[in-house]
Amino acid sequence: MSAGEQQIPPWLQEQVGRLQQLQQNLQSIMMQKQHLESEHLETERALEALQKANDDDTVYKTAGSILVKSTKTVLVSELQEKKELANTRLTVLGKQEIRIKENLKEAEAKIREMLRGPAGQSGQPKTDTPK
């Protein structure tokens, strides 16, 4: 085999690059989703602990590296809002995850089809563009 035959054709390089980009996007979404799920769980635990407190108990919230005095009502409201926001973001990320997984399947199928190519031809992809 000559050196030219061992090189990956540009059309295949493009598809592999697209596949790698989709994989990176999926990994990023999965990491964001995992972080949000952790944050959501932490918020739920804080809400549960706060619900057990009496209305007149002194409560604090963190603001960076300090604690700030607050009221139970205010903290419950803030935590519920934070929980709703996390739920919304998780829904969006879930939809993005599904869409990227579908795109990944399509890209993998396209690469397999390109590699198979029509029997007896030079291995060029089936394209709509005339030569």
TrEMBL record:
- Could you tell me the superkingdom of the organism this chain comes from? Archaea
Which cellular component, as a GO term, is one annotated location? Answer: prefoldin complex
* InterPro entries for this protein: PFD_beta-like, PfdB, Prefoldin
Cite the Pfam families for this sequence.
Prefoldin_2 (PF01920)
Cellular location(s): Cytoplasm
Q: Which family does it belong to?
A: Belongs to the prefoldin subunit beta family.
Q: How does it assemble?
A: Heterohexamer of two alpha and four beta subunits.
Annotated PANTHER family: PREFOLDIN SUBUNIT 1 (PTHR20903:SF0), PREFOLDIN SUBUNIT 1-RELATED (PTHR20903)
Q: What is this protein called?
A: Prefoldin subunit beta
Q: Which organism is it from?
A: Nitrosotalea devaniterrae
Show the taxonomic lineage: Archaea, Nitrososphaerota, Nitrososphaeria, Nitrosotaleales, Nitrosotaleaceae
